[in-house]
Design goal:
Strand 3, helix 20 and strand 4 form a beta-alpha-beta unit. Among the domains are: 208 residues, Rhomboid-like fold (Up-down Bundle); 65 residues; 144 residues, 3-Layer(aba) Sandwich (Aminopeptidase), CATH 3.40.630. By secondary structure, the chain is of the alpha+beta class. Helix 13 runs antiparallel to helix 16. It is 55% helix and 11% strand. The longest helix is centred in the middle third of the chain and has 29 residues. Strands 1, 2, 3, 4, 5, 6, 7, 8, 9, 10, 11 and 12 form a 12-stranded mixed beta sheet that branches. It is elongated, with a radius of gyration of 32 Å. It has 31 helices and 12 strands. The chain starts with a helix and ends with a strand.
C-alpha cells in the first residue's frame, strides 16, 4: 500500500522528481555530493558556467552546470527550494512547463548574466570585471525562476507580497554580497515573473497595487525582515563587496560577532512587531537603523560602507513614509511592569556575576583574565536583558478593558435587535464586548495572539452593521489586531465585499422548525421511539433553570458533566462550546430528563434567541447524559423540549453548529481559503476521537433540521494562517504543549473514532 502511494506521488510530480534525481545522481556518480567540484579538474572545466566558459566556447556548461552545487553544504537548501517550488508549480501548471521554467530559467539566468558582464571585461568597474572572471555551479537560479513563475498563479495579495519580498531579498543580496549567483538569481526571477502569466495560459493582467495602512505594515515588515536575513547569509558566505566595490577598496568583514547576531535577531523581532503595527517596533527599528547609518558614515570608505549607507537609508525612508501605519501602543502599566521585571532580573544576574567573580578571584593567578571574564559576562547579561526588553515591548499588546455595564448593555441589544442563533454566547465569560460610538451595535470578541476573534454577527440593527464593522476594523487596526468574524450569518458575509474583506463557509447552523412536533413520518422514528420508551419508564422532562434546581439536581449535573469531561484525554474545550458555568444564567433554560426516583438521566441547556424585545426561539448548548442509564435520553430531551417550546409559542429551536464537523461539499474560493477549510476539517478529524464532532453532527440529522451556512469573514488571505491557529487555540484554551504534541501526532497516526456518550453543541 505504501509502495503504491509512493508510485502515485512520483507520477503526480514526475517533473519535480526528475529535477531532484538529476542533481542527486550527478552528485553521487562524480562524488561532488560530498567533496564538491574542485577548480582545475576536468569535471570543473565541463560543468562550471560563467563568462569565461562562454568565451571559451563551452556553451553546454549552462546546462550541465545546474546538476552540481558550488559547495557540498549548499545541496540541501538548493534541493529543498527546487523540490518545494517545482512541486507546487507542477501541481498548478503542469509537468512540461515546470521543466521549462526550472531548466530554462537557470540557463537563461546564467547566460544573460554572462552577457551582461561581457562589456565590462576591460572596464574600470571592479565588481563587474571581477565577476566576469568567475565561474558558478548549481540550479538555485532555476529554483527562484520557479518561485517567480509561481507568483502568476497566486492570489493577487500573495502575488504582490511574494514578489516584493523576494525582490527585496535578491536586491539586498546583490548590494550586500554581490556574488555571481546573486546576480543570476535576480535575472532568473525577473524573467520568470514576466513570463509567468504566459506559461500559466493567460495574458499579463494590469497590476493593481493597494498601499493601504494594513498593507503597509506587512510590506514594511517583510522588507525589514528579508534585509536582516540577507545580512545573516552574507555573514555565512562573504561576498565581493557588491556593485560599490572599487579598486583597492576594503571588502566585507567575515564571520559572526555577538553584536552581529543580536542585531540580526533584533531586526527579525522588530519586523514581526511592525507586522503587528506596534509603534514601539517602529521607534526601535528607526533608532537601530539610524545607529547603523551613523556607524556606516563614520567608518572608513569601503564597498561595505556604501552598501550599508544605501540599505539603511532606503529602509529609513520607507519607515518614515509609512509612520502613520504603526499606531498600536502597549498599555502603560504593561510597560512599567515589564521594565520592573527586566531591571530586577538584570540586577539579580549582575549580583550573581559579581559574587561569582569575588568567590573565584583566588583561583585566578592572572587577575586581568578574571577582569576580562567579568566584563564579558556583564556584557552578555545586559545584551540578553536588552533583547528581552525589546521582545517584551514588541509583544506587549493592548488588552481589551471591559466596562462595568457592558453585560447589561449587551443583553439589552440582544433582546431588542434581531440576532443570530448563537449570539447569546457573547454573554459568556472571556468574551470582550466592543460598542460602536453610537452605542447601537456591539461586537463580542476574544483576543488570541494578534487576532481579534469575533463570534457570530455584530449585535444590532442590520442597517447599522456595515458602518459598525468599518468602525471596529479601525479599532482593531489601532490596537494591532487582525479582525475576523467566526460563525457569521449570510447577511454579514454579504457585506464582506463592501469591507474589502473575504468570506468562506466554515460551518452550518442546524435549525428545526416547531411546526411538526408530532414527529410523524419514517424520518422521525428514532425520536418517537425515544419518547415512547421514556413514557414507559416514567422518565419526564423537567424544564427549569440553574437557580431553581437545588442541590439534589445541581450535584447530579456536576457529576454527569464531570464524567463526560473525564472521558476526554484533552482539556475541556471553549469558545462556542459551553460549560455548566454558562448554564448558570437566569435567562438560560435547563431541561432535565428525570426518572421516578429523581435521578437525572441527562440534561440540555438552551440559550434564548430574541427579536424585537421577545424570545422567539432557543439554541441548544450543553448536551450531557449519564454513562449508564436511559440510552436514547438525548433523542428524548430534544424531542420533548421541542414539544414544550411549541406549547409555549416559540417558532423554532436551533441545534447549533457542530464545530469543526462539516465544511461545504465543494470547496470554493481561493487556494488559501481552501487550505483553511481543509485545516479546520483536519482539526475536526483529529479531535473526533476525543470530542465526537462528526458523530454529533450525524446525531442532529435525526431531527431533520434546515442547514444555514455560517462564515468566517476576514480582511485578506495573508491572515488565514494566524486566524486558523487562533481558532484552534480558542477552542482549546487550556491545552498545553503535551496536548498539542498529542494532536500533532494524531495528524500523522490517526486513531479510530470511539463512540461518545454525549456532546456539546
Amino acid at each position: 500500500m505504501r509502495f503504491q502511494a509512493f508510485v502515485a506521488v512520483i507520477r503526480r510530480y514526475w517533473a519535480t522528481t526528475l529535477l531532484v534525481a538529476i542533481v542527486l545522481v550527478a552528485g553521487v556518480v562524480t562524488g561532488a555530493l560530498w567533496q564538491g567540484v574542485a577548480t582545475g579538474t576536468s569535471l570543473f572545466e565541463n560543468v562550471a558556467y560563467g563568462l569565461p566558459a562562454l568565451q571559451a566556447g563551452r556553451w553546454w556548461t549552462f546546462l550541465t552546470g545546474m546538476a552540481f552545487a558550488p559547495q557540498p553544504v549548499l545541496y540541501i537548501p538548493v534541493l529543498v527550494l527546487v523540490a518545494w517550488a517545482a512541486s507546487v508549480y507542477e501541481r498548478r501548471v503542469g509537468h512540461v512547463r515546470t521543466l521549462v521554467v526550472a531548466i530554462g530559467g537557470q540557463a537563461l539566468g546564467a547566460l544573460l548574466t554572462a552577457l551582461f558582464l561581457m562589456p565590462f571585461d576591460e572596464s574600470g568597474w571592479t565588481w563587474a570585471r571581477d565577476l566576469g572572471n568567475e565561474y558558478d555551479l548549481g540550479i538555485s537560479a532555476g529554483g527562484l525562476a520557479l518561485v517567480g513563475a509561481l507568483t502568476a498563479v497566486m492570489q493577487p495579495i500573495w502575488r504582490t507580497r511574494v514578489r516584493v519580498g523576494v525582490f527585496a531579498y535578491l536586491i539586498a543580496m546583490v548590494l550586500n554580497s554581490g556574488l555571481l549567483w546573486d546576480v543570476e538569481h535576480v535575472v532568473a526571477f525577473t524573467i520568470a515573473v514576466m513570463a509567468g502569466p504566459y506559461l500559466a495560459g493567460r495574458r499579463p493582467s494590469r497590476p493593481v497595487f493597494s498601499f493601504q495602512r494594513r498593507t503597509q505594515r506587512s510590506l514594511v515588515a517583510l522588507i525589514i525582515a528579508v534585509t536582516a536575513v540577507t545580512s545573516v547569509i552574507e555573514g555565512m558566505f562573504p561576498g565581493t563587496g557588491g556593485p560599490f566595490q572599487s579598486e583597492g577598496s576594503a571588502q566585507h568583514s567575515t564571520g559572526f560577532g555577538l553584536g552581529f547576531i543580536v542585531g540580526a535577531l533584533l531586526l527579525l523581532v522588530l519586523a514581526d512587531g511592525l507586522r503587528r503595527g506596534r509603534r514601539v517596533a517602529w521607534i526601535l527599528s528607526t533608532a537601530l537603523l539610524l545607529l547603523t547609518l551613523a556607524g556606516a558614515i563614520a567608518a572608513e570608505p569601503s564597498s561595505e560602507r556604501t552598501a550599508d549607507i544605501f540599505l539603511a537609508s532606503a529602509q529609513l525612508l520607507l519607515l518614515l513614509v509609512t509612520v502613520r501605519a504603526f499606531s498600536s501602543r502597549p498599555q502603560q502599566r504593561a510597560v512599567r511592569r515589564l521594565g520592573k521585571r527586566v531591571l530586577v532580573g538584570g540586577g539579580i544576574l549582575i549580583a550573581y556575576t559579581v559574587i561569582g567573580a569575588l568567590v573565584l578571584q583566588d583561583d585566578f593567578a592572572d587577575q586581568t583574565l578574571l577582569a576580562g571574564l567579568f566584563v564579558a559576562s556583564l556584557t552578555v547579561l545586559w545584551v540578553g536583558a536588552l533583547f528581552m526588553l525589546v521582545v517584551g515591548l514588541v509583544y506587549s499588546s493592548r488588552r481589551p478593558e471591559s466596562g462595568a455595564d457592558d453585560d447589561v448593555r449587551l443583553r439589552e441589544l440582544l433582546r431588542s435587535s434581531p440576532s443570530s442563533n448563537i449570539e447569546w454566547m457573547l454573554t459568556w465569560k472571556g468574551i470582550s464586548v466592543w460598542f460602536s460610538r453610537d452605542g447601537q451595535t456591539a461586537i463580542g470578541y476574544e483576543v488570541v495572539g494578534s487576532v481579534a476573534l469575533c463570534l457570530a454577527d455584530p449585535v444590532g440593527h442590520l442597517d447599522r452593521r456595515l458602518a459598525a464593522l468599518h468602525e471596529f476594523d479601525e479599532y482593531c487596526f489601532a490596537n494591532g489586531w487582525i479582525p475576523c468574524l467566526f460563525a457569521a450569518s449570510q447577511a454579514t458575509a454579504d457585506m464582506a465585499p463592501d469591507l474589502r474583506w473575504k468570506a468562506i463557509e466554515v460551518a452550518e447552523d442546524s435549525v428545526m422548525s416547531l411546526d411538526n412536533v408530532e414527529f410523524a413520518g419514517k424520518s422521525w422514528q428514532d425520536v418517537r421511539t425515544a419518547l415512547n420508551k421514556a413514557g414507559k419508564q416514567d422518565i419526564e422532562l423537567l424544564p427549569t433553570q440553574w437557580a431553581d434546581c437545588g442541590p439534589v439536581f445541581t450535584d447530579q449535573l456536576r457529576a454527569i458533566s464531570g464524567e463526560w469531561v473525564g472521558e476526554k484525554a484533552l482539556p475541556e474545550m471553549g469558545f462556542t462550546l459551553g460549560t455548566l458555568r454558562e448554564a448558570d444564567d437566569p435567562e438560560v433554560r435547563l431541561n432535565l430528563a428525570v426518572g421516578p426516583d429523581k435521578t437525572v438521566e441527562g440534561f440540555t441547556s438552551w440559550m434564548p434567541v430574541a427579536e424585537n424585545g421577545e424570545v422567539v426561539g432557543w439554541t441548544l448548548d450543553l448536551m450531557r447524559r449519564r454513562d449508564t442509564g436511559f440510552r436514547p435520553v438525548m433523542e428524548f430531551l430534544i424531542g420533548a423540549s421541542a414539544r414544550q417550546f411549541h406549547e409555549e409559542g416559540y417558532r423554532f429551536i436551533s441545534l447549533s453548529a457542530a464545530p469543526l464537523a462539516k465544511a461545504p461539499t465543494e470547496l470554493q474560493g481561493s487556494s488559501d481559503e481552501q487550505v483553511l477549510q481543509k485545516l479546520l476539517n483536519l482539526l475536526g478529524t483529529v479531535l473526533e476521537p476525543y470530542y465526537g464532532f462528526q458523530s454529533l453532527f450525524r446525531f442532529k440529522e435525526k431531527f431533520n433540521p434546515e442547514h444555514r451556512p455560517l462564515y468566517l469573514v476576514f480582511p485578506d488571505e495573508t491572515a488565514l494562517a494566524e486566524i486558523g491557529l487562533a481558532v484552534a487555540r480558542a477552542y482549546m484554551p487550556d491545552a498545553g504543549l503535551v496536548d498539542w504534541v498529542r494532536m500533532g501526532w494524531e495528524m500523522v497516526v490517526p486513531k479510530h473514532p470511539v463512540p461518545q456518550s454525549g456532546g456539546t453543541a
